[in-house]
Amino acid sequence: MPVPALDVDAVIADPTTKIAICCGSGGVGxxxxxxxxALRAAEAGRKVVVLxxxxxxxxxxxxxxxxxxxxxxxxxxxxxxxxxSLDAMMLDMKRTFxxxxxxxxTPEKADAILANPFYVALSSSFAGTQEYMAMERLxxxxxxxxxTGSWDLIVVDTPPARSALDFLDAPEHLSSLLDGRFLRILxxxxxxxxxxxxxxxxxxxxxxNKVLGSQILTDVHTFVSAFEALFGGFRQRAMETFALLSxxxxxxxxxxxxxxxxxxEAAFFVDRLSEEKMPLSGVIINRVHTSGxxxxxxxxxxxxxxxxxxxPVEIEALRRHAALQRTIAREQLLLERFxxxxxxxxRTLVQAMPSDVTDLASLRRVGSLLAGQDVAPGDDV
Length: 381
Known about the structure:
Organism: Microlunatus ginsengisoli
Order of helices and strands: HEHEHEEHHHHEHHHHHEHEHHEH
CATH superfamily: P-loop containing nucleotide triphosphate hydrolases
Strand order of the largest sheet: 3-4-2-5-1-6-7-8
Radius of gyration: 25 Å
CATH topology: Rossmann fold
Domain ArsA/GET3 Anion-transporting ATPase-like: 18-288
InterPro entries: ArsA/GET3_ATPase-like, ATPase_ArsA/GET3, P-loop_NTPase
Pfam family, one: ArsA_ATPase
Protein name: ArsA/GET3 Anion-transporting ATPase-like domain-containing protein
Shape: elongated
């Protein structure tokens, strides 16, 4: 059964598609694919903002923007005659958290929260916070786009989560932390039903003071007291964003490389998206090796052997060609196995670039490859 082709151009041209999310494991070129999709959509007439969570500065470099931060910045250097535009930004986890606090509480409580050491640690480095803030920022961008018309497509480069779609679980994890029983006990150990537990809590608190230090518990208690009013808001926004992700206005691209571990992660992503009934457009297999020379690895090595040490440049070229052919064969086998287990998932293959993607021209080339263009006959594996 032939693998269905992923028509990237049709997906990004669909006006009902307002959010495109690129997800996948780390190291597969997700940031580059996200930027290339955003550029291609902008040049086709969409008003696009691309949000990256990748702390490496590759996106800013390739888009020709000096620096990216939590504020969308305009990208120049392409023909906007179709009416398209492109903005780019990089998630600032702590700043996004700070903005949530400032927007949804009083100035007095905001000051107390922002200065609290427990909050500083939570907003800067706590596990899951980055993924949750990516969801928060996406919700903010969507609300702004709906209110102002600044953008009609948001492209999201998700965090390089190793397990399948950690960012979908992040709201639940953070909400569980902030609304957990332990923090509630800290908040009101002598109120309501906890009044009967006050003596026992005193013993627990005394033990924790010895282990953690009294200041840490004081900081946590102060933080939770000030943060209590925001608990419901976090949960509500998480539910709204999750609903948005599963709507007809969102689509997912799973990005992978033709490698065993990357395809295994991609399989988890595809399965999880299916379980959650999320709208999956298809899988993008990035950095696929190709060759336009119809010479097998065995024949190339035989020719190198026949040269008997003469003409070392030709020998080295033949050996490299043999290695490339073996890489192509290995990738073909892995892709066949992947598609055999998920035969109905659309797929597109992106050839490996000969050099790093560092500017708009090379991003444009990646976009063409994503759309199945500029691929010589027989080059697609």
